[in-house]
Fold this sequence. Notes:
By secondary structure, this protein is an alpha/beta fold. Helix 5 runs parallel beside helix 7. The longest helix has 27 residues. The relative contact order is 0.18. It is globular and about 60 Å long. The strands form three sheets. It has a ten-stranded mixed β-sheet, sandwiched between helices. The protein has a four-stranded antiparallel β-sheet with strand order 13-14-15-16, with helices on one face.
Amino acid sequence: MNLELATTTFFLVNFCVVIATETVKKPHILLILVDDLGWSDVGFHGSKIRTPNVDRLASDGVILDNYYVQPYCTPTRASLMTGRYPIHTGLQHRAVLCLTPFGLPLHFSTLPEKLQEVGYRTHIIGKWHLGHHTSASLPTNRGFDSFFGFVNYGRDHYNHTHDGFLDFFRGEEVTREYHGQYATHLYVKEANRIIAEHNSSTPLFLYMAFENVHDPIQAPDEYLRKYKIIEDKKRRGYAAMMDIVDEAIGNITAAFEEKGLWNDTLVIFSSDNGGDPVNRGYNYPLRGYKRTLWEGGVRAPAFVYGKMLIQKGVIVKELIHVTDWYPTLVRLTGGTMDSSDIPVDGFDVWDTIAKGAPSPRTEILLNIDFPEKRPGLLLTYDTWYTGAAIRVGDMKLLIHVPNATWYQTPEDGGIAPPMEDIWDQKTNIVELALFNISADPTERHDLSRRNPDIVRQLKARIHEYQKTAVPPGIVPDDIMALVLAMKNKAWIPWRNTCNAR
């Protein structure tokens, strides 16, 4: 081999090594999901609640202005884990799940399972709420190496009970040693331990599924005192709970920095649904709230932060949905999409977020969830349906949705609604409405009569989606769940085989 050829070969080999190294380098991922956080309850949306750590990350990253989730926690979490719309997971409805032998369908690969395939260590801290009727439904059998948290929709933040029974797991076992300790503080300690013990040469996926700011509204006195200027006692507690989340995020990001992981960490921040004004979460100036398909129920505060972003300090107005995290993170980390008879509904939006490219997504099915037609069925909290809604470009169509209004925060002069007001709106049905969300994000001007062609087009899209829907998977309560909970004084898996679809 002559000198020129040898030199050329040397540089080509080294060039390929550099390219391969850059290609396989995988970011650490910190995915933060706050429970029931309202659109107007973060500093970067103008809130009086202090969220300096959240605001710093948002301002130095990419704020997502047209980012959508589902109107309830379980459908959002299922969409996050699978990349599918709720009509394709069977979780269209609100899912209590504490007595229900159903959860995340087992035939779908989950996001953490796909990340494990490419070498990630995966951990969930906080709320699962995707089934616990069998051990196969628990997080450690759905792609997570560890689980420290709870399985139901909410619980006491100090004694960790749901409906009187303990709901606190480490892995697949109930843990009983944390009575009286505030849950979010425990989560921070667990996160710091995981980060400190992590092998830095291995990519890390940490899913922080915060319990706050879901009711019951509880916070230590030192945080409540920060907001004594807020006269509404429940709103003061809610503000303190979000303050605790912000402090937790600051402590967790500091742990990433101390470990030397921070420069290679991608942070995703989102709420799971809109705020609930009954529990003092607010979405003003957006219309509606948790449980509804109005913007206040499904348009969530969100941002992405990371040194690897090419654009920073910007607001992205492109359409993005919670289902998009699945394909985006799988492809970003070099994984392969799962094959299924039900394709992934999400899109890879990395170039949209990181580079400012147009979103590949031009429409979002917000949900299809019509009331069950059973004689004598009363409309209660547990049977609250959402109707149907879709956004295509600027236009959003709602069909047969419970009505909703606008609620301003108490500190800005608003009056918190009693639950009776919410019930009244729930039984007042809006059969059809069309809005230009870009021009009218607060949904005040119904354009349906002036645009019958657009109405027909969007109704046709909803009908096309409806043809692909699987039957709702929420099944009747199983009394054996309560029998074992009473026996063990804790919620535990109660079935030996999993019958989830």
